[in-house]
Amino acid sequence: MEAFRVLIVDDIKSNLMVMAKCLQGLCEVIKAHNGRDCLELARTHPQPDLILLDVRMPDMDGHAVCKELKASPETESIPVIFVTGNDSEEDEEQGLLLGAIDYITKPIRPVIVRARVSVHMQLKQQRDKLRFMALHDQLTGLFNRYFLTENAEVRLAHFRRHKTPLSVVLMDIDKFKSINDTYGHEMGDLVLMAVAELLENNTRREDVVARLGGEEFVILMECPLDAAMVKVEKLRQQMEQLMPQGLMVTGSFGVVDACAEVMELNPLLKRADECVYQAKDQGRNQVVGWCSKPAALQELNYKGN
């Protein structure tokens, strides 16, 4: 598990040293001397898990920094604790309304700082776990249908604006029901996990691999159809050689690309499903593609042995 990262932001060096000492051994500490540096570090991966933000700083105070953090989708989920010498109700209310989760008042009391940070570390880890469960398939750890739908909407919107190529891949494990019927559902689960691992490990970071349900998987690839077909054919060959638990497992793949006529996920999945059915009708263990030029369809088919 990666170390919990806390970003401390203060324009006074001695304050940074005191706060860092308070958290020694509890978490990884990174430091920023002003608001601009804080914003830059908050956007740098790996991002901080928590920010301790001084309110009174020159040029850009803590309130302005917090406001900008919460206005950006990239940083809005990072919890912020204000550190301030002003303990008035009005000041605390303003900070909480801006999105801060807590207040630590000066002078710094090490026991309090450590306790507050420890509590929010646990809360953050619990939120991250719940978020992971909400967006991922419980068995395989791949993204689930909910995340796939949300991510596809963003990518298709980008396609509509900028014509960035997007291909959608649907894969169905061949004769999966017979695996469950012959060897049991536990063996079926092991096959699903092995196939999921293969798909995840052999696609690019920018690709989205999701379990649609049952033995169906979907991959979103930001590339043209012909390039996607080449990549998917390699996946088909790797899957053919996988032999999870000593079983021969193959898949039928359907590949489609977003185009002016089809720019929504469900119609794309429907066409990809038609390609999968065609692959199965032609003997399974093959890749069938669909594009807006039907004459090119046959050229985009790959068949296994």
TrEMBL record:
Pfam families on file = GGDEF, Response_reg
Reactions the enzyme catalyzes: 2 GTP = 3',3'-c-di-GMP + 2 diphosphate
Q: Which residues form the GGDEF domain?
A: 164-292
Residue ranges annotated for the Response regulatory domain, each copy included: 5-121
Alphabetized InterPro entries for the sequence: CheY-like_superfamily, Diguanylate_Cyclase, GGDEF_dom, Nucleotide_cyclase, Rev_trsase/Diguanyl_cyclase, Sig_transdc_resp-reg_receiver
Catalytic EC class:
transferase
The record's Gene3D superfamilies line, in alphabetical order, gives: 3.30.70.270, 3.40.50.2300
| EC nos | 2.7.7.65
**Modified residues annotated as 4-aspartylphosphate in this record:** D54
> What PANTHER family does the record point to?
DIGUANYLATE CYCLASE DGCM-RELATED, REGULATORY COMPONENTS OF SENSORY TRANSDUCTION SYSTEM
Q: What name has this protein been given in UniProt?
A: diguanylate cyclase
* Organism field: Shewanella corallii
